[in-house]
């Protein structure tokens, strides 16, 4: 591992536009909504903010458009103290946006227009090579085009930087990729997509995780919502329960978990300790509404860890 504790996140950045409404509209129907708000989102941006708040020195490789949403996204990242040197602003392109409709029961309908996120190419990753030189750990998701994800994993692999892949949203992966991963962190539905096994019981989770270990990943962490997370390596398996909390909004629990996990590992915590820290971050995120507004800070996470 590098001498630094820098977490490098490669991924997407979106502006989430949320309208609350009494009920979702039917196709072709127009209805009046209630409150409207704009928040920064995208799995990459959420995880880089989560890692920064969880105490890491972070940098972010991402693409934005040269529109007002891109400017706001860049400003938001700067406010969190995140390095923007490797964020590429693409001329004449729009930034990623998500239109989110939420009804009174919390049911939602989401459309994501990836915009500039869809234009993250292996060439752009190659131009950001410097970001890999001082990284202790590299964290990626699947909201970016697969060739760019593969290129980033290759650059990290060549430099012996451990890679955490959060395979979200669920997608297919080239078989040869697994052996280049230090950790893969699917949730329940992503686990089913990757292995054909929905982890209903602890035994199911173990079985699914071993299938991924056999593909060559060093460690598999299956996140199991309120049940916590299961870690499986060649040395065995352990289910680490999450603290009990009152859940109000589960948005970005996985992002809080992954960012905190990367942050803990960059500080050289062992896998089990890092997992306890990440579970606490995920649990804290579900106690608050929204994506980035709900991501917890280092002091809150460590306080909850010590209360366990
Ligand atoms: P995702 O948000 O990607 O679907 P999960 O729902 O598995 O992922 O949540 C990620 C992590 O967040 C869990 O492993 C756990 O640590 C924490 N978490 C999620 N929901 C709860 C909950 N209701 N209570 C406590 N912790 C939770």
Describe the 3D structure.
With 308 residues, the protein is of the alpha/beta class. It has ten helices and 13 strands. A nine-stranded mixed β-sheet has the order 5-4-1-8-9-10-11-12-13, with helices on both faces. It has a four-stranded mixed β-sheet with strand order 3-2-6-7. The longest helix is centred in the last third of the chain and has 15 residues, at 271-285. It is 34% helix and 23% strand. α1 (43-53) packs across α8, α8 (253-266) runs antiparallel to α9 (271-285) and α9 (271-285) packs across α10. Bound molecules: adenosine-5'-diphosphate. The site of adenosine-5'-diphosphate has 19 residues, from α8 and α9.
Rough outline: globular
The biggest sheet, with number of strands, parallel, antiparallel or mixed sense and barrel status, is: 9 strands, mixed
Determine the mean pLDDT: 95
Order of helices and strands: EEEHEHEEEHHEHEEHHEEEHHH
- Kindly state the number of beta strands: 13
Which percent range describes the beta-strand content? 15-25%
| Helical stretch tally | 10
Strand order in space, largest sheet: 5-4-1-8-9-10-11-12-13
- How much helical structure, as a percent, in the residues? 25-40%
Strand pairing plus helix content: what structural class? alpha/beta
Unreliable sequence segments: none
Rg value: 19 Å
